[in-house]
């Protein structure tokens, strides 16, 4: 979101856009579950991200509302509350020893 607002283009924005598409939407949902298994969390994060991106992009294309920059910004804004809540919760709760 900061790169879009800062009007940054090129390879840096492309790389961060890929990270956004692969990790952030899925983690904003899967991270809330706190599964405890890294491989399961990574797999579910990627699968959820791909599914959310594909379905929402298809809906926008079908409705003739497709605009890639707006799509990226909306996804960022929708994921931001969950990610902020997860980061705040991590700092407030003490670590559990295994």
The largest sheet is: none
Strand content: under 5%
Measure the end-to-end span.
37 Å
In total, the number of strands is 0
Which spans have pLDDT < 50 for at least 5 consecutive residues?
none
Spatial shape: globular
Question: What's the helix count?
Answer: 5
Q: How confident is the prediction overall: mean pLDDT?
A: 84
Q: Kindly state the percentage of residues in helix.
A: over 70%
The H-and-E topology, N to C, reads as: HHHHH
Quickly give the structural class: mainly alpha
Radius of gyration, Cα only, in angstroms? 15 Å
Write structural notes for this entry.
About 75% of the residues lie in helices and about 0% in strands. It is built from five helices and no strands. Helix 3 (about 25-30) crosses helix 4 (about 40-60). The mean pLDDT is about 85.
Describe the structure concisely for a colleague.
This protein is mainly α and 98 residues long. Helices cover 74% and strands 0% of the residues. The chain contains 5 helices and no strands.
Please give a handful of descriptors for the protein shown.
globular; mainly alpha; 98 residues
């Amino acid at each position: 979101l900061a790169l879009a607002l800062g009007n940054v283009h090129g390879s840096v924005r492309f790389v961060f856009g890929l990270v956004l598409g692969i990790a952030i939407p899925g983690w904003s949902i899967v991270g809330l579950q706190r599964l405890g298994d890294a491989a399961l969390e990574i797999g579910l994060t990627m699968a959820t991200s791909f599914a959310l991106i594909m379905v929402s992009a298809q809906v926008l294309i079908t409705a003739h509302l497709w605009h890639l920059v707006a799509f990226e910004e909306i996804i960022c804004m929708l994921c931001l509350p969950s990610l902020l809540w997860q980061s705040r919760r991590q700092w407030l709760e003490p670590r559990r020893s295994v």
